[in-house]
Design a protein that fits this description.
The protein is mainly β. It has strands at residues 3-6, 12-16, 22-26, 31-36, 43-48, 54-59, 65-68. The strands form 2 sheets. It has a 4-stranded antiparallel beta sheet with strand order 1-2-3-4, with no helix packed on it. It has a 3-stranded antiparallel beta sheet with strand order 5-6-7, with no helix packed on it.
Length: 78
Amino acid sequence: MKGLSFHPRRPWILASLHSGVIQLWDFRMGTLIDRFDEHDGPVRGVHFHRSQPLFVSGGALPSPHEAGCRVGVLCGPV
């Protein structure tokens, strides 16, 4: 694991992995909610947006990626 981010209001953790995968976990239930594999190399860090259903991630490659949650399915109203 390379990075963690706690959601400001929900019991969620984003975990960035060396494999290039980002996992979204519900830490109260201990369940994996979703996984994102848009990075080609290691994901160095992740961070939830404070007021929007978004997170940003940065990897070993020079261009940052932005990923949005699937509104209504994953994030719902924030």
